[in-house]
């Protein structure tokens, strides 16, 4: 048993590995760069980045992987096989980690705890990602530029900006993307599927991030705080975007003109002016748009749905940005500050 958080296991080596989530120890060192890892399997996988070796290939589509286990998981995208079965309900999964996450819904167990803030989770990988909020670590490095990322999926998406490769395509509208998970999310714009269910009310969402945000309405937790103006939010990403209203930073640069943006969705929208691409299509009326968020808003003209609700007065709106502005009528918050006098405002108007 772990003395820090109570995690229990039948295997001493598993406990030793678990303890590194508390100590931060990374005993496995790469002899070709400064990378180090808490587990040998992570180092073995990292080494393939130096050799470029991907010996495992899919006979269906040519996908290549550095690990046999990666190929096995990939093959299930073709076969639809879900070998991991829950013994308490009819749920089954293609990946063991998905089953382990599901099982905690029955047990309520969250054995992995952050020593900094007390955050608990049912998955070791989720804790590892969470800890990077405190350390600022970005272990996934691009070997073609100076980009680094907190998550491997972010690096994979970035690498496509160098290769231009988008192997995953929607059979409904021709939309292409660099990631299978992004395609799966996109397909929900056609099917209307909302697989993420709130266990405290009847809310359901197409995206896990939407459910996570919704759950904070039940808990009221807003752990991320702006040091400039006291603004608080439920999401780190929202705080990062908010701080740019103070710094004026615009990290998203267009490589075809001098446009720069503070937020990625504005940048993505701008790029379509160069490409003319409108990958998001409404299955009801054929409306096409360059932005996924625009399609989501458009779909509400068919459904009449107003997702975002004020917990103070019951005001509802189809747009999150409208709700954020509305909330300032309750809080009195004025986050926009004049750099030449002490004037502050609740909104910015461009004229």
CATH topology of the domain at 217-345: Double Stranded RNA Binding Domain
Oligomeric description of these chains: single chain
The helix/strand class is alpha+beta
In total, how many beta strands?
Answer: 24
Average pLDDT: 82
CATH secondary-structure class of the domain at 217-345: Alpha Beta
Radius of gyration: 23 Å
Strand order of the largest sheet: 1-2
Q: What fraction, in percent, of the residue positions are helical? A: 40-55%
For the largest beta-sheet, the strand count, sense and barrel status come to: 2 strands, antiparallel
* Strand content bin: 5-15%
CATH superfamily of the domain at 217-345: Classic Zinc Finger
For the record, the CATH architecture of the domain at 217-345 stands as 2-Layer Sandwich
Number of helices: 12
Shape: globular
Low-confidence stretches: none
What is the terminal separation in angstroms?
Answer: 63 Å
Keywords: Metal-binding, Nucleus, Repeat, Zinc, Zinc-finger
GO molecular function, one term: DNA-binding transcription factor activity, RNA polymerase II-specific
Protein name: Zinc finger protein 525-like
InterPro entries: Znf_C2H2_sf, Znf_C2H2_type
Write structural notes for this entry:
The protein has 351 residues and is an alpha+beta fold. Among the domains are: 1-81, Double Stranded RNA Binding Domain (2-Layer Sandwich), CATH 3.30.160; 217-345, Classic Zinc Finger (Double Stranded RNA Binding Domain), CATH 3.30.160.60. The chain is 41% helix and 14% strand. The chain has twelve helices and 24 strands. It has a two-stranded antiparallel ribbon. Strands 3-4 form a two-stranded antiparallel sheet. It has a two-stranded antiparallel ribbon with strand order 5-6. A hairpin with a 6-residue loop joins strand 11 (168-169) and strand 12 (176-177). The longest helix has 12 residues, at 12-23. The chain is globular, with a radius of gyration of 23 Å.
């Amino acid at each position: 048993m772990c003395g820090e958080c109570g995690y229990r296991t039948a295997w001493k080596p598993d406990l030793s590995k678990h303890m590194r989530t508390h100590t931060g120890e990374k005993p496995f060192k790469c002899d070709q760069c400064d990378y180090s890892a808490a587990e040998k399997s992570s180092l073995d996988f990292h080494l393939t980045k130096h050799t470029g070796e991907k010996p495992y290939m899919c006979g269906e589509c040519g996908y290549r992987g550095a690990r046999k286990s990666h190929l096995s998981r990939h093959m299930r995208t073709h076969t639809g096989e879900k070998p991991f079965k829950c013994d308490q309900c009819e749920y089954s999964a293609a990946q063991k980690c998905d089953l382990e996450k599901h099982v905690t819904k029955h047990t309520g167990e969250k054995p992995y705890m952050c020593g900094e803030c007390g955050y608990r989770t049912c998955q070791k990988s989720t804790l590892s990602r969470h800890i990077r909020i405190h350390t600022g670590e970005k272990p996934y490095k691009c070997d073609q530029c100076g980009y680094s990322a907190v998550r491997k999926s972010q690096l994979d998406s970035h690498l496509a900006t160098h290769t231009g490769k988008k192997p995953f395509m929607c059979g409904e509208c021709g939309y292409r993307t660099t990631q299978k998970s992004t395609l799966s999310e996109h397909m929900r714009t056609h099917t209307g599927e909302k697989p993420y269910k709130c266990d405290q009310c009847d809310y359901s969402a197409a995206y896990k991030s939407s459910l996570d945000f919704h759950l904070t309405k039940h808990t009221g937790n807003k752990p991320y705080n702006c040091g400039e103006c006291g603004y608080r939010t439920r999401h780190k990403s929202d705080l990062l975007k908010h701080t740019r209203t103070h710094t004026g930073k615009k990290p998203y640069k267009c490589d075809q003109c001098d446009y720069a943006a503070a937020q990625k969705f504005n940048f993505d929208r701008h790029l379509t002016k160069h490409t003319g691409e409108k990958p998001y299509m409404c299955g009801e009326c054929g409306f096409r748009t360059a932005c996924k968020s625009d399609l989501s808003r458009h779909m509400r003209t068919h459904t009449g749905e107003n997702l975002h609700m004020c917990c103070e007065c019951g005001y509802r709106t189809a747009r999150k940005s409208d709700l954020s502005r509305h909330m300032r009528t309750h809080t009195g918050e004025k986050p926009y500050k004049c750099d030449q006098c002490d004037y502050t405002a609740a909104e910015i108007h461009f004229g």
